[in-house]
Amino acid sequence: MKIFTTSQIRRADSCTISNGHITALKLMEIAAEACAKWLINNTPESAVFQIFCGKGNNGGDGLAIARLLQQQGLKVNVFSDDAAPGSSECFQINYQRLAEHPQIAVYRYNEAPSFDFDANSVVIDALFGTGLKREITDEFAFLIGFMNTLPFRKIAIDIPSGLFADTATGENAPVIQADDTLSFQFWKKSFLHPETGKYCGNIHILDINLDPDFIAQEPTDEFIIDDVLIKKIYRPRHTFSHKGDFGKTAIVGGSFGKMGAAVLATKAATAAGSGITLTFAPRCGYEILQTSCPEAMFSENGTEHAENFILEPGPTVGIGPGLGTHPETEKAFLSFLKSYEQPLVLDADALNILSINTDQLNTIPLKSIITPHPKEFGRLFGSTADSFGRLTLAKQKARELGIYIVLKDHHTQVITPDGRVFYNISGNPGMAKGGSGDVLLGIITSLLSQHYSAEEAAVFGVWLHGKAGDFAADKFSQEAMLASDLIAELGNVFMELNERN
Prior knowledge:
501 residues, 10-stranded mixed sheet, 17 helices
């Protein structure tokens, strides 16, 4: 799914109106019908809807929703201001239509603080849409603050009021804290970043039949990793294939006290489909790895830490889990990078070593994949004010170094050397535990060894990782799930993929 800016969404609306031979008012009605249907299906029959409407088209949506809900016999109250200067034409028409529905009570904004809200209230935010250009102040800032104090479920129409669609919002700006956001047709960029996404609650994308030709032809560099994209990437196995068809994966990691990370990465590589898997680790991990991962071969590269990176030709290499930063390891790793030319995957201590040797970043082979979390990214490339700035810097560094950056976050971003960004929406907070990143390295390295391109391995890998996390959370809960549970659930993810195909 493409991610469009506010101006692109506005053009999509215009093309839909002109090419579909419908009016703006009709398009608003379609959007309102989609919202009303969702609300009816996802709220109790006893709900009393308290709909707060601004003066623009987002407010017009809210007024149309109020009318449609009332027509279904539901109780609705509207808080609005029909005399607001600059109100949109669609807002005015929908406000006038309320007169045909005297069962809908209409109140001024200033009546809300003293209003006796029903215990079954559901608050609908239709104050400001995606056209917001500046932070909210004065009357609406007070109103948003009041709405946030209400102890009821809050549902935002298209975007929580006070939030910008494309950029960060001020740290203390007034923004509706929604439990659910009903977004029209597309994800907005601000839904996907931690500073702004925290206001959105659960995201629900509602299809309002915007012009498919415009959507197909309009260019963008930002995308959602969705089922359609994954179906294009995933290659089911052929009947007469053999282990040699699925590559050889080499995991380089582990040190005294950190062997578990290498175990997780190795197990993940095998479970993600690697034909042959090898682990290069210190002698202290021999029994651990051979016992816990009998499917993988072991090769010694030191006693208690890695002392060399002498690898046989052929395997796709993933380096970092539990590697440690011993001076001997550091020296051997940096020397290896200078002589190695094939794309590889770097995480954890491999990145930590590079972060104290940033002059060596240009020795990372072209088309390699690095998988930093935000702090590792900051140590490698410098700190930024927020995740929007971090993404901009990541695009710059991916282009300069000719590598793929998997920027781990709640919605992990895959940044390509040509500046495209893929946001992952699978996964959950239960994955925020030690070992989860080691599993991701094993998955991505395994996919790269199976002849997926670097871009495909990164995109498919983060999706697989997140999807396995969702399966694990359903089974064990977000609190109790473990990194090893992600590996165990990979089989169920692949089974689901094969059922789709």
